[in-house]
Design goal:
5 strands; alpha/beta; single chain; 272 residues; 14% strand
C-alpha cells in the first residue's frame, strides 16, 4: 500500500508541479485590482495558519505537537489569492508553534527580507494576515485588541471581510481531502514527517488543479468547515528578536499607511 501511495504522489508531483506557484507580475496586478474593491489596492494574497490533526502523539518530541486546541498536530501556513488558489504553503512544524514562528522559518520569509523581494512584490504590494501575525513591510496584520478605537476596529473589520476568502480556501481544501482533518498514523521520525509534508503538498496541488478548472465547491458537495477564531482566541505573537525590531517599527508605519488608505476608500461610500 505504501509503495502504491508513493507512486501516486510522485505522479501528482510530476504532472501538477506548476500548480503551486507565486503569481507573476501580470497576475499580481490582477489580484491587487480585485482586492482594491475591498480597500486594499496593494494586496496580492491572504495568509492564515491552520493545524492538521494527528491521531497519535508523535514518537519524537511528542509534547511539542500538542496544540492549544488540545490535539497533536502540525502547523500549516497557507497563502491564497482572490480565487482561493493556494500560491504558497509551509508545513511540518509542530502544532504548538505560533503562526509567526512557522512563517519565519519558511523560504518565503527569507526571500521577503532579502534582495530578492522585488521578484515577489512590486512597489506597494503586500499580503494580509490576522492579528496573530506581526506587521512588516510586506505583511500587513490586523490590530490586536483595538480597545474601542474606531479606526482600528473599522480597519480590522475591513481585513476580516477580505480574509474570509482564505478561510473558505482552507475549509474547501480540508473538505475535499478529509485526510487533512486527521492524519491516522504516528510520526515516528523525520522521514515520516517529510512524508506527511508531501501528502499535504499533493492535496494542495490537486486543490489548485480543480480550482483552475473552475470545479467550484458547492452546497451539493457538502458543508465547508471554516475555522474562525475571535481576536481573544488568537495568541499573542512571540516577542521578536532585537535585530528585527527596527523592521517591525517600519511594519507598523506601513500598516498605518494601509489603514489610512483603506478607511479613506471605505468612508467615501465604497466597499462594505
Amino acid at each position: 500500500m505504501v509503495n502504491y501511495t508513493n507512486r501516486v504522489m510522485t505522479a501528482i508531483e510530476c504532472c501538477l508541479k506548476n500548480e503551486i506557484s507565486w503569481p507573476n507580475r501580470l497576475e499580481r496586478t490582477r489580484i491587487a485590482s480585485v482586492f482594491a474593491a475591498g480597500g486594499f489596492p496593494g494586496c496580492i494574497g491572504l495568509v492564515d495558519g491552520t493545524t492538521i490533526r494527528l491521531s497519535q502523539r508523535p514518537a519524537e518530541d511528542g509534547e511539542t505537537y500538542f496544540d492549544r486546541k488540545g490535539d497533536y498536530s502540525i502547523n500549516a501556513q497557507i497563502i491564497s489569492d482572490d480565487r482561493k488558489r493556494i500560491i504558497y504553503f509551509f508545513t511540518g512544524m509542530p502544532g504548538s508553534c505560533h503562526d509567526v514562528t512557522c512563517l519565519r522559518q519558511s523560504s518565503l520569509w527569507k526571500r521577503m527580507h532579502s534582495q530578492q523581494q522585488h521578484l515577489l512584490f512590486d512597489r506597494g504590494q503586500y499580503f494580509l494576515g490576522d492579528s496573530g501575525y506581526t506587521s512588516g513591510e510586506r505583511l500587513v496584520a490586523a490590530f490586536r485588541n483595538a480597545g474601542g478605537d474606531k479606526d482600528k476596529t473599522d480597519f480590522n473589520t475591513c481585513i476580516a471581510h477580505v480574509r474570509i476568502a482564505n478561510e473558505h480556501c482552507i475549509g474547501i481544501l480540508k473538505s475535499r481531502w478529509h485526510s487533512l482533518k486527521e492524519v491516522r498514523t504516528q510520526l515516528k521520525n523525520r522521514a515520516e514527517n517529510q512524508y506527511l509534508v508531501r501528502w499535504v503538498r499533493c492535496s494542495i496541488l490537486l486543490h489548485n488543479f480543480l480550482n483552475r478548472r473552475r470545479d467550484d465547491w458547492t452546497e451539493a458537495d457538502g458543508p465547508i468547515e471554516v475555522e474562525v477564531e475571535s481576536e481573544v482566541q488568537i495568541p499573542d505573537p512571540p516577542t521578536p528578536p532585537l535585530d528585527e525590531r527596527a523592521m517591525i517599527a517600519r511594519g507598523r508605519r506601513r500598516r498605518l499607511e494601509v489603514q489610512s488608505e483603506c478607511l479613506a476608500y471605505m468612508r467615501n461610500g465604497n466597499g462594505h
